[in-house]
Amino acid sequence: MSAAETMNAHAPGMKTIPGGSFVMGSDRHYPEEAPAHRARVESFLMDSHLVTNRLFGAFVMATKYVTVAERPLDPEAFPDIPKSRLAPGSLVFHKPKQPVPTTDTRKWWSWKAGAYWRHPEGRGSSVAARLDHPVVHIAFEDAEAYAAWAGKSLPTEAEWEFAARGGLEGAEFVWGDEFAPDGRPMANTWQGIFPSENLLLDGFEGTSPVGAFSANGYGLFDMAGNVWEWTVDWYSDRHTEDAAKPCCVPLNPRGGSAEASLDKRQPSVAVPRKVVKGGSFLCAPNYCRRYRPAARHAQMIDSGMSHVGFRCISR
After folding, report:
1. pTM: predicted TM-score of the whole model, two decimal places
2. Rounded CA gap, 116 and 305, in Å?
3. How far apart are CA 147 and CA 241, in angstroms?
4. DSSP 6
5. Residue 293: CB atoms within 10 Å
6. SS3 of 7, please?
7. What is the per-residue pLDDT across 237-295, written as a single tens digit (0 to 9) for each?
8. Which domains are delineated in the chain?
9. Between the chain's N and C termini, which has fewer beta carbons within 10 Å?
10. DSSP notation for 69-136
């Protein structure tokens, strides 16, 4: 039995990521992906699938864990909102009935009281028929708590991106350079004009069961689309300058700081942000083309939303 087979034998459901050097980021897309630079990661194991509602439910049953979206809100953190309206909940996507400008996210996101992982669209909704879909409405500490319970951890941004590339050096997507080879959707993304028109060419309106699309070169499913995935790195508007120096290739780099991750455009919202990767079922050609391994986005650590999930690694 090879070393890789031995590692996987002790970690069912995980794939060996061999480690190595790769070009991280991109200079050709969104500014926060730049500068493209070489980075190195050591070998590790990664979950082949996103954590599902079924698996997260087992964690909750075993530990009685309560997610951030289920906890009462602190009135001091929301001084302008009446206490009677401070019910636990989360942000849920709703498709507008007609085209709207993509400059105002309030046109398709709304706060739903009672929305959390078990009731993803709010009160009255259920995951009973979606046990094998990725769990959503997961804040960063929720993902960390699950990972600790499972004896695992969350990936760094570099580890996640290296794994997503599946051995394809410099490819645009996790499967190659063509978005839809022969017209075939390769991931659960948005087809049509976001946010009002979804042509459903991939067969899914929202999340899809994990493994519904082909795996990448390392045997990992849903490394593009479906739901965003948490990493442990603090967000920054660009990759750090040190990471881009040609003299030396950093090993297992970690990015940013909690203070630097704050959104300077919204000083009243002083919530640190982590990097999420992979895009989601809401990413479309006309909006958020972040279903690429180089793409990255900022997510406030206390907010999950209906398109944010995670997977774990083991070192």
Report:
1. 0.93
2. 8
3. 31
4. H
5. 28
6. helix
7. 998 766 556 667 878 888 788 888 998 777 666 799 999 999 999 999 999 999 999 99
8. 1-315 (3.90.1580.10)
9. N
10. GGSPP-GGG-TTS-GGG---EEEEE---SS---TT-GGGTEEEEET-BTTBTTSTT--STT-TTSBP-
